[in-house]
């Protein structure tokens, strides 16, 4: 999958995957308005603006600029994660001060706890409504976490990096699913499962482009509901809905259960 093949998925309003994250980010951004931005925040804002401007205008994009911006976020996240008692709420409130768009739709920076022993963390960076997006992965002994890996379109050439969310998968392994493209009225999405071994992000599975998709994660795995047979001429009607449950079993990502559901009516 090439990211340019999904340009039609991006719209001005980011829905679904942003609905929860943007609310929490807005709280941090509101608090940040009470003081002038730090030089660090100002430097990051300039780099992020270069990234979104290049993407919006179709200009060549700079890996160096993206890396510089992400290194600023790495420094903030790791300083807090390596503290005696890391507090994810406090870390994400600090990262929220780097959000420049108001309202913060389509932009956000968030640390998410993954599985593993010792614990692994990810940082999800969505640079704005036009992208790009990237993931940083932190691993190592408690109190000595460092950048262990990353996911972006420079490391994974076919990576869809316009806008995404991360869903942590419960278990002893650092597993997660990235959700990208869910910005249209049909809730169209691309879902990709990953495993991080401390130095490398292994792609385990990726879905097709799925309409009318929804998802949830729990102790029994990742459940994905989607349209398996869409009617392209009927405003989102779907003659066959399907629900699949995926889980990590026997050292592999497997679809362990599938069910056919009643048709979905067209969206109003």
Offer a few descriptive terms.
single chain; 268 residues; alpha+beta; disordered N terminus
Q: Which secondary structure elements does this structure contain, and how are they paired or packed?
A:
Elements: H1 19-32, H2 39-57, H3 63-81, H4 88-96, E1 107-113, E2 121-127, E3 133-139, E4 146-151, E5 164-169, E6 175-180, E7 190-196, E8 201-206, E9 214-218, E10 221-230, E11 238-249, E12 252-261
Antiparallel strand pairs: 1-2, 2-3, 3-4, 5-6, 6-7, 7-8, 9-10, 10-11, 11-12
Helix pairs in contact: 1-4, 2-3, 3-4
Summary?
With 268 residues, the protein is α+β, with helices and mostly antiparallel strands.
Description:
- With 268 residues, the chain is α+β, with helices and mostly antiparallel strands.
- The protein has two domains: 3-209, no CATH class; 210-268.
- The protein is 23% helix and 33% strand.
- It is built from four helices and twelve strands, in the order ααααββββββββββββ.
- It has helices at residues 19-32, 39-57, 63-81, 88-96, and strands at residues 107-113, 121-127, 133-139, 146-151, 164-169, 175-180, 190-196, 201-206, 214-218, 221-230, 238-249, 252-261.
- The strands form three sheets. A four-stranded antiparallel beta sheet has the order 1-2-3-4. A four-stranded antiparallel beta sheet has the order 5-6-7-8, with no helix packed on it.
- A hairpin with a 5-residue loop joins β2 (121-127) and β3.
- α1 crosses α4, α2 (39-57) runs antiparallel to α3 (63-81) and α3 (63-81) packs antiparallel against α4 (88-96).
- 38% of the residues are buried.
């Amino acid at each position: 999958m090439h990211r340019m093949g999904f340009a039609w998925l991006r719209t001005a309003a980011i829905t679904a995957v942003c609905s929860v994250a943007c609310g929490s980010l807005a709280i941090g951004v509101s608090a940040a308005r009470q003081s002038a931005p730090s030089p660090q925040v100002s430097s990051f804002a300039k780099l992020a603006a270069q990234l979104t401007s290049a993407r919006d205008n179709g200009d060549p994009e700079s890996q160096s600029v993206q890396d510089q911006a992400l290194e600023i976020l790495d420094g903030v996240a790791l300083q807090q994660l390596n503290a005696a008692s890391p507090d994810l709420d406090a870390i994400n409130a600090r990262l929220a001060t780097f959000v420049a768009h108001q309202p913060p739709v389509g932009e956000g920076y968030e640390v998410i706890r993954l599985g593993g022993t010792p614990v692994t963390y990810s940082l999800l960076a969505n640079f704005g409504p036009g992208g790009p997006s990237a993931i940083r992965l932190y691993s190592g002994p408690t109190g000595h976490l460092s950048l262990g890996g990353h996911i972006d379109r420079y490391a994974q050439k076919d990576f869809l990096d316009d806008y995404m969310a991360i869903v942590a998968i419960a278990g002893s392994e650092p597993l997660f699913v990235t959700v990208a493209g869910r910005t249209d009225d049909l809730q169209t999405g691309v879902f990709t499962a990953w495993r991080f071994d401390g130095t490398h992000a292994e792609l385990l599975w990726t879905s097709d482009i799925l309409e009318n998709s929804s998802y949830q994660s729990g102790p029994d795995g990742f459940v994905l509901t989607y349209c398996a047979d869409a009617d392209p001429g009927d405003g989102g009607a779907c003659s066959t809905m399907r629900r699949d449950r995926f889980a990590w079993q026997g050292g592999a990502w497997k679809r362990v259960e599938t069910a056919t559901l009643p048709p979905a009516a067209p969206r109003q």
